[in-house]
Amino acid sequence: MAKKIERHDLMTLEEYAQKRSEFRQKALAHKRSRMLAIGPNATLFFEDRLTIQYQVQEMLRIEKLFEPKDIEDELAAYNPLIPDGHNWKATFMLEFEDEQERRAQLRQLVGIESKIWAQIGENDKIFAIANEDLERSTDEKTSAVHFLRFELSDKDIADLKSGASLAFGIAHPNYNAIVAPVPETLKQQLMKDLNAG
Fold this sequence. Notes:
By secondary structure, this protein is α+β, with helices and mostly antiparallel strands. Helices cover 37% and strands 23% of the residues.
């Protein structure tokens, strides 16, 4: 299980400026290995301690934050996005290149964030819990970005560790797509997010 990030885990702004290029390369490669496209316009980016540490370091850099209280505020905002051993946490993005098409599609896809599921073997589908920090949709349109949590049972975790298949999908009337099984490299990454047992 990943530990939460604490202030002493972070580089100072000066240190980060020196090491950013190398750290950024490592973090982005890691992020790519934890990404899953579901259909042509939807992508899940599974977060973990490294992806979140990169986000925090980048926010501190952009905002030029170095006061202890400001750093603690960033950590309080981002630490909840690190999986806690019984779940996966992901940033879900809807991407449409054309601005007009994007607006039209976001109106068509209201509620999509609660229609995203994971399935381990033949177990029940695990529907994502969306946007626990704040509401990102209205009755008229959904947001292009959502934060999701997939909460796994002990049986789900045990079955996955015993070799059960893993699938993800979206069951929305205007967007239906399944990835089954997910690539083995991603499955291995996601298994690292879960408690042993």
